[in-house]
Every structure is written in structure tokens, then in C-alpha cells.
């Protein structure tokens, strides 16, 4: 993983750490945290990182409240911690 991917992974974790259990974030929030000026270009990368975190069982990617595969999901998605 490159520096940007690692930064996005840390940002997703940090944003979820301050949210209530079960709360979600948008991939764009992580992108903004990493690069406030060029965040729009990072949103696809943030979605990819969310997919990797989901594959590792750390987060779930949702759309309209249902868990989805971010690789095939079209449109806005949200990220939440896996409830244990």
C-alpha cells in the first residue's frame, strides 16, 4: 500500500473512532481529511481502501443501510465498523 492508501486507511479509522457505534462515514470524509484541497480526486481511492478494510473484516460498506460490495456498488456508499 502506498502513502496515500495508508493515509486514507488511517483517516477512515480515525473518523470511525469518534462516531457512535453503528454510525457511518462517507468515503469523501476520509478523502477530505487526507487532502482538503484535492479530496474529490481521492474519493475513488477511499472507496477502494474501504473495500480492502471490508475484505479484512474491519468495516462494512453499506448502501441504503444494506451491506454491499463496494467494487460493484454504484452511487453513494457509507462505511461503518463491523459490529462485534
TrEMBL record:
InterPro entries tied to this protein: DUF3253, WH-like_DNA-bd_sf, WH_DNA-bd_sf
Top-level taxon in the UniProt lineage: Bacteria
SUPFAM superfamilies attached to this UniProt entry: Winged helix' DNA-binding domain (SSF46785)
Gene3D superfamilies, sorted: Winged helix-like DNA-binding domain superfamily/Winged helix DNA-binding domain
Name recorded for this polypeptide: S-adenosylmethionine tRNA ribosyltransferase
Lineage: Bacteria, Bacillati, Actinomycetota, Actinomycetes, Geodermatophilales
Amino acid at each position: 500500500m502506498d502513502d496515500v492508501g495508508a493515509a486514507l486507511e488511517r483517516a477512515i479509522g480515525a473518523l470511525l473512532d469518534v462516531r457512535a457505534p453503528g454510525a457511518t462515514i462517507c468515503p469523501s470524509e476520509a478523502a477530505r481529511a487526507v487532502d482538503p484541497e484535492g479530496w474529490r480526486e481521492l474519493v475513488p481511492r477511499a472507496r477502494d481502501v474501504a473495500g480492502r478494510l471490508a475484505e479484512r473484516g474491519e468495516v462494512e460498506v453499506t448502501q441504503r443501510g444494506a451491506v454491499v460490495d463496494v467494487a460493484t456498488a454504484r452511487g453513494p456508499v457509507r462505511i461503518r465498523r463491523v459490529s462485534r
